[in-house]
Write a structure and sequence with these properties.
The chain is of the alpha+beta class. The chain folds into two domains: about 180 residues, Alpha-Beta Plaits (2-Layer Sandwich); about 70 residues, no CATH class. It is about 40% helix and about 20% strand.
């Protein structure tokens, strides 16, 4: 993201904070931060390389997405996948709260050569996160407005809430992400996420595709494009409702002619 530094961008910002971080021992803080960083990298990998950035914070992590705002939603749902798989009472669980905002963010280069974020986008995402309960995903009004206007299905995924941590509640609105299977508030990162995930469920819900069909397409594509398979399936699924056309669009994303030919042959498309 070298060419994107030292500029202000309109980003979808996902702020993830570890619950009770200040009360943990130094060893627990280090372990929880390491695990959260690992899972954050895994879920962010679904977005294209030049459209995402990950920045560590004192008590968690910030994910910035420069492209499709839905990438931020899918990243949060990737975390939600881990939340459902581990008991919230587990002694090694990481408890988090999540806030998402769409707003201006400055990407600035620091001495070590990495990027950091500043400006209103990050502050608002932190404010949204502060209203979230452990395991809850909240979004700001600006993020809700953009996503709710994409399709009718997306509007049904959010529920308005009254902010609890802001005296100016008439000026600050938050919405809870409501999806099937919402579960516990712990994060497990021992195993990488499978091609199928709640983000696949979200894509299916909003496009009319069956989840199994999208999972099968991502599994077929993964040997040729790696971790970008789900992101590419998402883009293709939003453009067509026909299976043959879906696989033709996916074939176009394969970088080599040999790979495209092999993929088309295996899927029975010309």
């Amino acid at each position: 993201m070298k060419e994107q530094q030292d500029r202000i961008w309109l980003c979808s910002v996902v702020r993830i904070g570890i619950v009770g971080y200040a009360k943990l021992s130094v060893a627990q803080q280090a372990a929880n931060k390491a695990r959260l960083n690992a899972v954050s990298n895994l879920v962010a990998a679904e977005a294209l390389d030049d459209e995402r950035m990950i920045v560590a914070t004192d008590d968690g992590v910030v994910l910035c997405f420069l492209g499709d705002p839905k990438d931020a939603l899918f990243a949060a749902l990737g975390l939600r996948e881990q939340l459902r798989e581990e008991s919230p009472t587990g002694s090694d669980s990481v408890r988090v709260r999540i806030g998402i905002h769409l707003g201006p963010v400055k990407l600035a280069k620091v001495r070590e050569g990495h990027s950091t974020t500043s400006d209103d986008g990050l502050r608002c995402a932190e404010q949204v996160m502060g209203n979230a309960e452990p395991g809850q995903i909240l979004v700001s009004r600006s993020f809700f407005d953009v996503n709710a206007n994409l399709t009718q299905g997306y509007a049904q995924l959010f529920r308005p809430l009254v902010p609890k941590n802001d005296a100016r509640s008439d000026e600050f609105s938050v919405y809870e992400v409501v999806t099937p299977g919402q579960g516990a508030d712990s994060v497990r990162v021992q195993d990488p996420p499978h091609v199928d995930s709640p983000s696949t469920e979200m894509i299916a819900y909003t496009t009319g595709w069956e989840r199994a069909e999208l999972t099968a397409a991502a599994v077929a594509l993964a040997p040729y494009v790696g971790t970008k398979a789900r992101a590419l399936v998402k883009l293709a699924a939003e453009r067509t409702t026909n299976v043959s056309d879906l696989y033709r669009l996916l074939a176009e994303s394969i970088p080599t002619a040999q790979g495209r030919e092999e993929f088309c042959r295996k899927q029975g498309i010309s």
